[in-house]
Write a structure and sequence with these properties.
By secondary structure, the protein is α/β, with parallel strands linked by helices. It has two domains: 116 residues, Rossmann fold (3-Layer(aba) Sandwich), CATH 3.40.50.1000; 111 residues, HAD superfamily/HAD-like (Rossmann fold). The chain contains nine helices and 14 strands. It has a six-stranded parallel beta sheet with strand order 5-4-1-12-13-14. It has a four-stranded parallel beta sheet with strand order 6-7-8-11, covered by helices on one side. Helix 5 crosses helix 6. This is Haloacid dehalogenase-like hydrolase domain-containing protein 2.
């Protein structure tokens, strides 16, 4: 392996607390000159907020090292000449879509696309139902999923993520989503390109056996599972076989030559 992609939540930090040894491992990657980037399905905060959070942990990262679904979604809609998307993400993340002139927050018709991210406590029946009405108003409106992560681990326990709400809308609207985050192979491909390496030279390190490990392996990368974040012992033997399992990201330096 010559390059590393790192998930954030559950791998580098949990909530506002760093995973012990994770910042030191990222410093090690920098010292060793190992190309690395952060591949996250986080849609609860914009890219600049992710950079600021890492800086608060003592980790320096440039915007080009942070790959988020919001950035990919904007690029996808730009390529397809889509404007006026209805964006279901927190207000701060919605700013990433400003160039596309998002639809007003109370509109139920006229969306160029319906974009689903992680609204957290902002999800209500009325909000989800508005997304459905927008989709049902025109069968040509694409449903854009900012990743298909099922849940994540916050400081107070597991929380539903965007994938659960995307599946509900796919079922209700009889429409398949366009996925622009993990586990979509195109998202992984863009991350590999950012490292200027081949897929078989890159390892993805994550805590989600399906989104991180299975998704990376299907895109031609190695997948390394960590026993932090939302890892569960049932992940071992679930049918997806990681290329390696680490107790945490802190173990990477001593295991690097084995990968």
């Amino acid at each position: 392996m010559r390059g590393v992609l790192l998930d954030l939540d559950g791998v580098v930090y949990v909530g506002d607390q760093p995973v012990p040894g994770a910042p030191e491992t990222i410093h090690w990657l920098a010292r060793e000159g190992i190309p690395h980037a952060f591949l996250t399905n986080t849609t609860s905060r914009p890219r600049q907020a992710v950079i600021a959070k890492l800086a608060g942990l003592g980790v320096a990262a440039g915007a080009e090292q942070i790959l988020t679904p919001a950035v990919s979604a904007v690029a996808w809609m730009r390529r397809h000449s889509i404007t006026g998307p209805a964006v279901f993400v927190p207000e701060a993340t919605a700013e990433e879509f400003a160039e596309l002139a998002p639809l007003a927050g109370d509109a139920e018709r006229g969306a160029g696309a319906v974009v689903i991210g992680d609204l957290g406590d902002g999800w209500t029946f009325a909000t989800l139902n508005r997304a459905l009405r927008l989709l049902m108003s025109d069968p040509a409106i694409p449903l854009v999923a900012l990743g298909m992560t099922r849940y994540w681990r916050a400081e107070d326990g597991l929380r539903l993520d965007a994938g659960a709400f995307v599946r509900a809308l796919e079922y209700a609207a009889s429409r398949a989503a366009v996925v622009v985050g993990k586990p979509d192979p195109t998202f992984y491909g863009a991350a590999v390109d950012a490292l200027d390496l081949r897929a078989d030279q890159v390892v993805m390190i994550g805590d989600d056996i399906h989104t991180d490990i299975e998704g990376a392996q299907r895109a031609g990368l190695a997948g390394v599972l960590v026993r932090t974040g939302k890892f569960s012992p049932s992940d071992i033997g679930c049918g997806v076989v990681p290329d390696a399992v680490l107790d945490s990201l802190a173990d990477l330096p001593r295991r690097w030559t084995d990968l």
